[in-house]
Amino acid sequence: MTAAGAWVLAFALSVALPDSAGARPDWSTLLRQTGEWFASPAGREAVAHVLSHQTDPGDWPKNTDTVARAFTGDRSRLTGTFDNGATVNELRFLARAHRFTGDPACAAAVRRGILHILAAQYPNGGWPQRHPPGSGYARYITFNDGVMVNLLELLRAAAREEEFAFLDPPLRRRAGTAFERGLDCILRCQVRVNGRLTVWAAQHDEVTLEPRPARTFEPIALSAGESAGVLRLLMSLPDPSPAVRTAIRAGAAWFEATRLTGFRVVTRDGDRWIEPDPDAPPLWARFYEIGTDRPVFAGRDGVVKYALAEIERERRAGYAWYGAWGVEVARAFARWTGEQFPVP
Question: Which of the residues are catalytic?
Answer without folding.
Answer: 84, 215
